[in-house]
């Protein structure tokens, strides 16, 4: 069911908002929202919709926001030099594939679904336990290719425990079979993840509080 | 389906139960449910009177090129404890909206404003 821009195949309308860093730093937004989309903090980070603070990638990356409220919360993408498909996308997703609240079990399921529709034959290169911003996490490194479409992909996924839920950060780089992967986009992804902060309680934290208020 | 599966622990706290309905046969549904590791029932309704009664399938234009009805509708319906349909939404389920609506229903049931 997931189609579209090639981090996850995303259904429905996905709107890429072409905000470059120049626009970010100018605190500009084209979306008719009451809350400004991004606000620079003056310390190299921005606050997104008054919800998340993070270090954005440099100029040349396009910011993406899913207006349907579905498959991911926010992300960035960049088309790169070279034949199709030469692009890198990274996202923050508060509802990654699967339902298990256990990191290992969730990752097993996640990897069976990830890039499923792309036809890429992904191989898990490495999985490692770590902490991300003080939270228990699992990093998954994947690479794969499709000999028919002559393209390949390299992904790094962080599944992160947040309360009773699991959230994710995902970076995927696409290249033609004949081209090489590049590290630089992954460095921007790493900076994004390591700087990512929750400015206020997320939906589920607020919802838990509401449930407790009525004794559930 | 997967999104509902992820929220089951919250649905249960809200005294809500999830039932999926599909036109596929039971064997196909069983395989589908296993592939998604679903933890709620998936009903087979090939005829498909449930989809028609709940308005999930369109028997009005646009039809498919061969003139047959669109059988690919996707609709979320919430039925309250009195059997009254309280929520209908087409397309991919918005689980946050559904959770918020279920909370409202539960508060209403308990007489909480």
List keywords for this structure.
heterodimer; A: 216 residues; alpha+beta; 8-stranded antiparallel beta sheet; 4 helices; 18% helix; disordered N terminus; B: 113 residues; two-stranded parallel ribbon; two-stranded antiparallel sheet; 15% strand
Structural overview:
The complex is a heterodimer of chains A (about 220) and B (about 110). Chain A is an alpha+beta fold and about 220 residues long. Chain A has one domain: Mog1/PsbP, alpha/beta/alpha sandwich (Protein Transport Mog1p, Chain A, 3-Layer(aba) Sandwich). Chain A contains four helices and twelve strands, in the order E-H-E-E-E-E-E-E-H-E-E-E-E-H-E-H. Mean pLDDT of chain A is about 85; it is low at about 1-30. Chain B has a domain at about 1-75. In chain B, about 40% of the residues lie in helices and about 15% in strands. Chain B has helices spanning about 1-15, 25-35, 50-55, 95-110; strands spanning about 20, 40-45, 75-80, 85-90. In chain B, the strands form two sheets. Chain B has a two-stranded parallel sheet. In chain B, strand 3 and strand 4 (about 85-90) form a beta hairpin. Chain B is globular, with a radius of gyration of 16 Å. The mean pLDDT of chain B is about 90. Chains A and B meet through helix 4 of A and helix 1 and helix 4 of B.
